[in-house]
Amino acid sequence: MDVVLLSRIQFAVSIGFHYIFPPLTIGLGVVLVWLEAGFLRTRDPIYETAARFWTKVFALNFAIGVATGIVMEFQFGTNWATYSRFVGDVFGSALAAEGIFAFFLESGFLAVLVFGWDRVGPKMHFFATLMVSLGSIFSSVWIVVANSWQQTPAGHHVVPVLRNGVPLLKDGQPVFRAEIVDFWALVFNPSTVHRLVHVWIGAFLVGAFFVMSIAAWYLLKGRHTEFARRSFDGGLALAAVSALAMFVSGHGQAGAVYRHQPAKLAAFEGHYRTGPADLNLFGVPDDAAQKVRYGVAVPGGLGLLLHGDASTAVVGLDRFRPEDRPPVGISFQSYHAMVGLGTLFVALTLLAAFLRWRGTLYQTRWLLWCFVPAVILPIAGNELGWVAAEVGRQPWIVHPKVTWTADGSDLVVGPAGHVVYDEREGLRTLDAASPNVSAGQVLGSLVGFGLIYLALGAVWVFVLDRKIKHGPDEAHLPATATPDGALEAAGLRAVHEGRMTGGEDRG
To answer: Where are the domains of the chain?
Structure first.
């Protein structure tokens, strides 16, 4: 088998499994900040109850995320050694920044978040929660910066690799590497901001739907109802805002992709020939016939979205040599599946928000049942988004720049009418794999990683199931509305106030 294909599959499996957990921690971190802020503001014990429960779930996801993330860094030095040599200066800086500004911040306060409930005061605990949440968000910043640079490189120049002062040669040709000349231009490369906002919104959706899924299950079972309602309300507010923001962010990102990676957007939309372009809602791309079959499209819709004019020409795949075009089928279907799921998020959250406003949400059992498995949808949407982004930039692992004409209406092309890339400025995926790793070695490690991920996934599901079945700690649940319960509630509130007062004295 092809070693490059196997290496790509191995990395896809690793990052696909890993990426279940970072969005969960980012989204849950925001939820935890909201809950603890609510407790400090209202002194209502239910907020602390909810925060304690979701903290346990957060810690579980954080641990699995760290364990799975380390594997990918090893793969950079094994399967993708040539790639690492080309991007090492850039990637090393971004990963170092992640360690300094994000990981230490996140992990440094994690112990206080998890174990400090009865050891520090509420304000100190809230601060630790805020730092952990910001740490997880900052961590995503540097990972997205590194990946965005590969999509739209900036702030660097390409220099020969030297060995003892002599250029290193491969097949008689010099070997090059990227070297940073402007760190902040690298950080704020043309796609960073759009992609970062999109990643954050996707993470917020995952965290929100995760909370709503578990809360809906409690409500349907009639367990911990007050805790579940407060949790669902917070998750629903975050999901509704994020779902709407996702479309705004997606529109901005599509424009950026078209400007810097027009072949990728043409693949997303199955747009083969330069000219006015329809907006395909679904269909089956046919490379041989150069069209989308069995589809439904909005006439002129793509030109309208990109240029504000349905008649304006949109660059198609015909501007690129066949060997420089992304795989259209995978790019098209993953992109449209992602967009379809985003539409479903909006419909589901707006319906739930409307019923919550009407006061009938928690009596609408069929909708609550929809939310129980619905957490799968944003996870799938995030995964599909990355599939589209990574497959869509092929055959490049570091995408070279494209140049537009002075009026910005078309690409600068060569004599044959095709974009001529500066091969030195980019790096093809075929050239990025290590020449010293065999297909058998990659296949063996792929099987091994697959078994490890299955085991970790089983452990995660098992522990999560136990935590959900146990539910929030009964000692922190508010009492029921009975005469005795009223006295109990007063006692619990006194306990909480005492904890707060004692905690304040401890810092």
So the answer is: 1-151+438-507, 189-411
